[in-house]
Structures are given as structure tokens and as C-alpha cells.
Specification:
Oligomer: single chain
Number of domains: 1
Helix content: over 70%
Strand content: under 5%
Radius of gyration: 19 Å
Structural class: mainly alpha
Distance between the termini: 70 Å
Shape: globular
């Protein structure tokens, strides 16, 4: 049962990495330093004061950068693979009592997958906001993302099962949103040639 809860915590924190990479790491570090979170033996460095300070500075820089116009979209291209890596590491740091192969396989599939799914949804949302509002609504989206990352991180530590259930519901919603966005883009590409042919014939 304890192993299952550890996996839930890891996956929940990994999902939070999809919103902001460093907030879950900062929360993990603070919880470990205060003795409220037990990390896998090879990840004890996360629960040290140097790591806590580093994650704090990185979090502040990351949050601030997403309020800079156009830089937010540029950061998304870097943040997507970084979020997958962070989600993998976060999950692996919570899983112990199994072979390294199983530990990292679970971390990559569950943790990296959860972080990648959430990050993809944020990229699609920001791209849609940029296209429809010219980026005016992007600061509001940026605020919502870091708030959700913080709330998800705290909820995961307090109630990991509830966090994973919330992740599942959010994953279904995000998957439908991404699918709708891709389908809309495909339909737009199909319509453009036909519109061009109609214009040429007229």
C-alpha cells in the first residue's frame, strides 16, 4: 500500500511539472527538508538546503519569464522535453523498493507521460490564446498555470489518491482538447486548397 501511495505522489508531482517545471521540485525539496517527505535513497540531494535554494531561484525565474510577451511561446518549445525529464525524475525519486529497471520504466511511462500530457495541453492553450487574442490573454494563462502547479503539488502531498483522480479527469479533458485542436488544424488545411480553387475559377 505504501509503495502504491509513493507512485501516486510521484505521478501527481510529475503532472504538476507539466504546468511549471520547478514548482513541484521546490515543494518536494521543502517537504523533504522539513521531514514531511521521504525520498528514494539516490535522490536525497533534493531534500537539501542548496537544492531548496536552487529550486526557489529557478521557480522565480520560470514564473517571471512566462509573463514576457512572445518569450512564453519560445519557452514552450524548451519546456516540453524538460517537463518530461522533470516528471520522470520526480516520479523516480518517490519510488523505492523495486529494481532500477522497473523504477525508471515506471518513471518514464507514468511520470514522463503525465508531465508530457499536461505540458502539451498548456502549449495548445497558449498557442490558441496567441492566435485569438494576440497574446493579450497569455499572462492570465501563465498565472493559472503556476497556480495549478502549486495546488497540484500540495494536493499530491496531502491526498495523493485524489490528486491522481483529478489528473485522470484532467487528462481526459486535455486529450479531448488537443484532439479537437489537431482536427481543427487539419480541417483548415483541407479547406484552404478548395477555397483557392473556388477563387481562381471565379
Amino acid at each position: 500500500m505504501q509503495e502504491a501511495l509513493s507512485v501516486f505522489v510521484g505521478v501527481g508531482l510529475a503532472a504538476a511539472c507539466g504546468f511549471r517545471i520547478f514548482i513541484p521540485l521546490l515543494v518536494m525539496s521543502a517537504a523533504a527538508v522539513s521531514g514531511h517527505l521521504t525520498l528514494a535513497p539516490s535522490f536525497q540531494w533534493i531534500g537539501t538546503y542548496p537544492a531548496l535554494i536552487t529550486f526557489g531561484v529557478a521557480t522565480a525565474l520560470e514564473i517571471t519569464a512566462y509573463y514576457v510577451p512572445w518569450l512564453d511561446n519560445l519557452l514552450d518549445s524548451i519546456a516540453t522535453p524538460a517537463a518530461v525529464v522533470a516528471g520522470t525524475v520526480v516520479t523516480a525519486s518517490m519510488v523505492s523498493g523495486m529494481s532500477p529497471f522497473l523504477q525508471w520504466t515506471l518513471a518514464v511511462i507514468a511520470g514522463g507521460g503525465a508531465a508530457g500530457l499536461v505540458q502539451t495541453a498548456t502549449v495548445v492553450t497558449r498557442a490558441a490564446s496567441t492566435a485569438t487574442t494576440g497574446g493579450i490573454a497569455n499572462p492570465l494563462i501563465a498565472t493559472g498555470e503556476w497556480v495549478l502547479s502549486l495546488l497540484m503539488s500540495f494536493l499530491t502531498l496531502v491526498a495523493p489518491v485524489m490528486a491522481v483522480l483529478a489528473l485522470a479527469v484532467g487528462g481526459i479533458f486535455a486529450g479531448r482538447k488537443v484532439w479537437h485542436h489537431l482536427a481543427q488544424r487539419r480541417n483548415n488545411r483541407l479547406l484552404q486548397p478548395s477555397q483557392g480553387m473556388q477563387a481562381s475559377t471565379s
